[in-house]
């Protein structure tokens, strides 16, 4: 492989491998001390006589990896792989760095002794397949949520909160980690379908106290338009006035006469009528309006469906036994849902989320929408004593959620690098490896398998045999990050010229 640089002279052969070995070593030396429960962060200057603190491997890597020069090629490739692991798995970026470095250091030294880089690169991938097959043999069922969450986050309070959520934690998007208003951790669990709304609620006058609004036996009209005049809806509104029933209109917006009429109906005539607007805009707002229709049994009104406001019929209204509206949310309790429609909608959303798996924000938004259709969602609000602690605890919580979900899907293996160390022992006992390239690859993969346990022991100043037996890692995360580490190392091994 040839990599282009802004340099007048090309670099090749052993000079290139030396640069890659050295630059990887320096990068991982900065990242690896943050691995594990005894990991340490990095304090750095953010300017204006202020300091920042980085605890995650990706953040530290961004601080130390340069943007130009031969010595930045390997670190930049590694950083991209680390960001991919964090995006796709939510955990494991530091382990990826340690494993990649160990594999490359061993394999490149074999090349320096006369080995063929292309052959060793291919053999690395083949040996990696054997290693992961053996790792699968070491798999066991997932332990209690609290146990694995405590190991993943290093935080008993976060682990207890996730344990309290129960089986709902297994659905991606069910839990939203947010910054809290006061120091500490707060878990809020909600039943019902939730819609994020704009804080300005149509029908509430500026002088009315902004408190939580609750309504019983509520009917819903869902409209994909900005409403400026309630006149076309007069027959529907009159029916609710006459029968003293509660009505919530969910639309893209309320302006002019429509907004004033809603305030008058609620304030002057004491009618239970509200207008709500989704927090999202554009196509995302339409998506949420369609979700409300699926959750409540309503029919979407507007140009999208060809149904005019004047054509609204009682059968087009949705229904919920109870509605709670606060500043940012509307929660429908016991909505008149159609299970088949809910299932179809969730399947479609999750399929789309998989298609957007490399776009974290889009993927998480789709997963959250699918989860809310289940009728349960939770907020985990976290705030530390300072901004550093807040960011770190929120990252820890997200990592713990990802680890628990991965463990529930495909089981676990011994953590703290133990499972991979056992794979290394098994690989060392193979007696059918004869070709030099295969032997070099075998030694490199063994080095990679031992890298995590060695680094954890170095970080804790603790003997590897003293790690607790209850520490586990998700099998799928361990498998994926090891496969990607081999891929990165194999790619770096084929770089022969820097131009």
TrEMBL record:
What domain of life does the UniProt record list for this protein's source? Bacteria
One example of the protein's molecular function in GO is: ATP-dependent protein folding chaperone
A GO biological-process term: protein refolding
Q: Which UniProt keywords are present, listed alphabetically?
A: Chaperone, Plasmid
Q: Does the keyword ATP-binding apply?
A: no
Concerning InterPro entries, the annotation shows: Cpn60/GroEL, GroEL-like_apical_dom_sf, GROEL-like_equatorial_sf, TCP-1-like_intermed_sf
Query: Any transmembrane segments, and where?
Result: none
Q: Which family does it belong to?
A: Belongs to the chaperonin (HSP60) family.
Its name, as the record gives it, is 60 kDa chaperonin
